[in-house]
Write a structure and sequence with these properties.
The protein has 414 residues and is α/β, with parallel strands linked by helices. It contains twelve helices and ten strands. A ten-stranded mixed β-sheet has the order 1-2-3-5-4-6-7-8-10-9, sandwiched between helices.
Length: 414
């Protein structure tokens, strides 16, 4: 129970709902929608029909029913180099800090991107891109400029960002605070602030369109963060030290949800990694186990569109589920990670979503997960779909990162 409560607090929840189920025999006999059957009943048998019919309708359904529609916002990207250090991390990397001005208007959001490039090579490198809770939190390096409107202490989350190891393997690392595009929390350990979105990109967009409140199908926080990740990619594609076609979007917990939604919408991302993303991410919504759809909406409803709440308690009416979210990444590689003690995130539900995304990868002639049952603890499995069930709880560990680095090496350095 203590572990579950800790996991719940990490997701921004005050307390675990009294009806939370951790009995697998009560999780329900899940019948999933077929990712290769269109809503009108037609069967998808060709890549063309997937590309032209099924994939667009699945994207639209996730937008309408789960994350909200991401608007087409015209931006004017203007990078401003704020700082360069060629001898960062004891000479291992070049550190650059770039402010990405997105609009030529006062009061508009901007992104402060922190970027590390390995000094061992002068070539363009693949890059891992992820959201942080403040750039200053990813490493104790005193030269990292703190992100605005964040409370992370310097180096607080460095254990989640093994920068030296990633750079030694020949990858770059890029990050920015999710609060640059939308606030999630105000103060350490406090709950998500219901109206924090007003000072971010969603509030800015509504104001530009003469509106005060979002509609039921307008984007939530996850959509805003995913949009921000795509704006960072806009810059990385232009950066002379980055191999822009090989950017891996990754995230843990709520940022893992955002990473999957970003990659589903934006096919420029070469790969996606979801670490313990749970409900609203890689875990099946139809299972009554751990965090349910109802619990997630009740505790963190601002993450989703308002329409998502209609399916609380009637998840089988939801037209889509997490396996189809993962399938939207096909034929690009995707890795899903769970942890044994992170029952709130429903490890089996994450595994089943990865397994049931396989038919779409097979349509592209690719091997997917390749196993029918949960693998042994601390064993990585899969081909184009990767998965592991790690010992421990709701966290990112050095062992997790070793699996991600191996997976990225396999797919991005062929």
């Amino acid at each position: 129970m203590l572990v579950a409560l800790v996991c719940l607090v990490l997701e921004g929840a005050a307390q675990e709902p009294p009806d939370t189920n951790y009995d697998e025999s009560k999780a329900g006999d899940v019948v999933l929608p077929d990712p290769l059957t269109c809503f009108d009943g037609r069967r998808v048998t060709t890549r063309r029909r997937w590309r032209e019919v099924r994939r667009p309708e699945l994207l639209e359904s996730f937008a309408t029913n789960v994350y909200g529609r991401t608007p087409q916002i015209r931006i004017h990207l203007r990078p401003e180099l704020r700082e360069t250090q060629t001898n960062a991390l004891e000479g291992l990397a070049t550190r650059r800090q770039v402010r990405l001005w997105l609009f030529d208007e006062p009061g508009a959001p901007w992104i402060d991107l922190l970027l590390f490039h390995p000094n061992a090579t002068a070539k363009r490198v693949p890059v891992f891109l992820g959201l942080s809770y403040g750039n200053q939190g990813v490493h104790a390096d005193p030269g990292i400029l703190p992100s605005r409107d964040t409370v992370s202490k310097r180096g607080e989350h460095a254990h989640r960002w093994p920068l030296s190891r990633i750079l030694e393997r020949g990858f770059g690392v890029a990050t920015f605070a999710g609060a640059d595009v939308e606030q999630d929390r105000h103060g350490s350990g406090s709950l998500a602030k219901p109206d924090g979105w007003r000072s971010g990109i969603r509030g800015y967009w509504l104001q530009r369109n003469g509106r005060r409140e979002p509609a039921d199908t307008d984007w939530g926080s996850l959509g805003a963060w995913a949009w921000g990740l795509s704006r960072a990619l806009d810059y990385l594609e232009r950066d002379p030290k980055v191999e822009g076609s090989k950017v891996v979007v990754f995230g843990h917990s709520r940022t893992g949800k955002a990473a999957l939604w970003a990659a589903a919408q934006d096919e420029r991302f070469a790969m996606a990694i979801s670490n313990n993303s749970g409900q609203g991410g890689a875990a099946l919504a139809r299972r009554w186990y751990g965090e349910t759809l109802a619990a997630s909406v009740s505790l963190s409803g601002i993450w989703y569109c308002r329409a998502y709440g209609r399916f609380a308690g009637r998840e089988t009416d939801l037209p889509v589920d997490a396996h189809e979210l993962l399938a939207l990444l096909a034929p690009r590689p995707v890795y899903v990670a769970s942890a044994v003690e992170d029952r709130w995130a429903d490890p089996r539900g994450e595994f089943l979503a990865a397994r049931h995304a396989e038919p779409v990868y097979r349509l592209f002639g690719l091997a997917g997960l390749g196993v029918e049952e949960l693998p042994a603890i601390d064993r990585s499995v899969g081909a184009t779909i990767g998965y592991h069930l790690r010992s421990g709880d709701h966290e990112i560990t050095a062992w997790d990162w070793e699996q991600y680095l191996e997976f990225a090496d396999r797919h991005l350095r062929r």
